[in-house]
Amino acid sequence: WLPRRAFTFSYAAPGASGVVRAAALPTSGGGTPAGGAEYLYVKHASGPRQPLHEPAAVLPVPSHFARDRILLPATLAAVLLTLLAVRPHLGVPLNDDFSYAHTARALAESGRIVYNGWASPMLWPQAAYGALLIKAFGFSYTALAASGIVLAALATATMYALARACGAGPAPAALATATLTLNPIFLGVTPSFMTDVPSLFLLLAALLALVKALQPGEAGDTRLDPKRFALSVVLGLVAGSNRQIVWVAYFGALVTLIWLLPRQRRLVAPAAVLVLVIALALSRWFGDYPYTVPTSVGQGLLVLVGYTNVAVMFIYKVANMMGLFSLPMGLLAMDKRRWRSLAFGVLLLLCLVPIFYPLGTKVALLGRDYRLTAYGQYFTSRGVVVGGVSGFENRPTIFPPLIITACVVLGAVGVAVTGIVLLDWWRGLRRTGSQARTLPDVATSAVAVASLASVAASLPWFAIMNIFDRYLLLYLPGLLVLFARAASERPMTKTRIAAAATLLAVQWVTGYGTVAEYMNYTRARAALY
Predict the structure, then answer these.
(1) In the predicted model, is pLDDT for residue 354 greater than 90?
(2) Do the beta carbons of residue 395 and residue 384 sit within 8 Å?
(3) CA-to-CA separations, 399 to 104, 404, 516, in angstroms, rounded
(4) In the record, which residues are listed under signal peptide (predicted)?
(5) How far apart are CA 74 and CA 173, in angstroms?
(6) Scanning 175, 314, 424, 430, which has its CA 20 to 30 A from the CA of 72?
(7) CB 436 within 8 A of CB 285
(8) b/e sequence 168-184, b meaning 16+ C-beta within 10 Å
C-alpha cells in the first residue's frame, strides 16, 4: 500500500521461531518484472526491535500498479462519460449558482468579494478561480459550469488516491470512489457552479495531504513529515474558506492524530489550535455581514421542544440517505459473521421502526419528500419532480411507492451496516495500543473521524430544517474510505461483489436517468426565453 517509498513491516520468516522486522525498498527502476510481481529489497533484523542490517534478500510481492493503471482510468472514464451522456445544459444557472457566479463576476471586475443577499457559504477559493475564468473567457455560465466537470474528475482521482493511501486495495478503492462519484447526488450537482463538488475536491485534497504526511518511524511507530503536514494545514484552511463545514472535518482529523499519535502532539496540537482560531475568526467576520440570515436560536429551540418528532425525523432522513448511498461499500466491509449477530439485529430493528411506525400523528417518513438528486429533484411517491417541493405540473411519475419503500428500507439496512462497521473499527482501535497501531490504521481513523465530526456538527441544523441531499456529499468520503479499508481485509466473495455491484449499478442508472431528465427539462425551459 506504499509502493513508492520505503516502509517497515513484520513478517514470519521461513524457518524463524518468531516475527522478524524488516524494511522494504522499491527497486530503483520501480518497474514490474514478468509475472506481475514487483521485487523489493529487504533488510532483515534478528528480532522485532533489533537494528536492521544490509539488504539480505529480494522479496517478490504482488503488484498493485497494473490494477491502479486500469481501475483509476476506468472509474474516471465512467464518471466523465456519464456526465457527457446526460447532455448537461451549461448555458444557464441551474440552482444557487447564479448567486455564486455573480460573486465571482464582482471579484473579476472590482477585485473585491461581494455577496448579494442570497444564502451563501464563504466561497473564497471558488470565487477566485471563477474570477480567473471570467477574465479569460468573459462572463459565461457555460465556462463556470464546465469547471464543475473538471473538478469532478479531480475529485474522483483524489478520492481513489486517498483510499489507496489509507491502505485499501485497488478494487475496494475503485468501488469506494465509484460509490461517491456515480451516485445521483454527485452526478446531479456536478455540471454547475455550485459549491458541493469544489468543496468536496478541496476536502479530499486536504485529507490526502494529511495522510501523505504520515511516515513510518524507525521504531515501528508513525511520525509526521513537517513540510507535508504544513501543506495539509494550508489546504485545510483553504478548503474551509469555501464551505465552512470543511473546517470541522479537518479539525476532527487533527484531533484524531493528537489522540492516536501521542509522540506527535507537539506538532499537531498547535496546528489544531491554529485551525480552530482562524476558523472561528473568519466565521465571526462572515456572520457579521448583513447579507447573512442566521437561523434563530429561539426558533430552533421551539422546534426541538415542541416538535421533537419532526426533529428526529429530519435527522433520521439524513442518516437513511447516507446509509442508502454507502450501502454498496458497506456490504463489502462488514464481517459476514456480524449479519447474524444480536447487535446487528437490534440496530436494524431500531432503524426500521421509524419507517413503518409514524413518529407523530401527521409525520411519517414515507409521507414526506425523500430527496434523491440535487436541484430540487425529489424521490417521492409522485416520482421525480423538478424545481422545488411542489414541483411543476405534468411531470412524469417514474418511481411507484413500492420502489420508494424499497429504497428507504435499503437505507435503514445501510444505517445498521454503518453502525456495525463503526463499532468494529472503534473496538479495534481500543484493543491496540499506540505502538501497535499501523500507519494505515491511523490514516483511516483520521479520515473517518473527519466525516463523523462534520455530521455531528450539522445535527442541530439537520434537526430544525429539511436538508438538501447535496449537503451529504461532504459527509460520505471518510465513511467510504473506512469501508474500503475494511473490505480490503475481508474475503471478496462472489456473492458480496455481486450484491455491491448490483446496488452500485442501480444508483448509477438512476443517477443517469434523473439527471438526464432534468437536463432535458432545463433545456426545454431555456428554449422558451
Answers:
(1) no
(2) yes
(3) 38, 7, 16
(4) none
(5) 12
(6) 424
(7) no
(8) bbbbbbbbbbbbbbbbb
Contacts of 493 (CB under 8 A, 6+ apart): none
Amino acid code (one letter) for 161: A
Q: What is the mean pLDDT of residues 255-275?
A: 95
Which residue has 491511523 as its cell numbers? 442
User: CA 488, CA 501: separation in Å to the nearest integer?
Assistant: 16
pLDDT at 245: 93
Number of H helices, E strands in the chain: 17, 9
The residue type at 233: V
Instruction: Say whether pLDDT at 150 is over 90.
Output: yes
Angle between helical axes of 245-260 and 196-213 (0-180°, round to 10) = 20
Cell numbers placing 446: 483520521
How do the domains of the chain map onto residue ranges? 7-63, 66-299+405-527
Residue 405 has which C-alpha cell?
Answer: 419503500
Q: Any idea which residue has 529487504 for its cell? A: 42
Q: Strand, coil or helix: what is 219?
A: coil
CA distance linking residue 192 with residue 201, whole number of Å = 14
What's the grid cell of residue 177?
470512489
Q: How far apart are CA 40 and CA 43, in angstroms?
A: 10
Residue in 282, 216, 214 with CA at minimum distance from that of residue 447: 214
CA-to-CA distance for 5 and 374, rounded, in angstroms?
A: 41
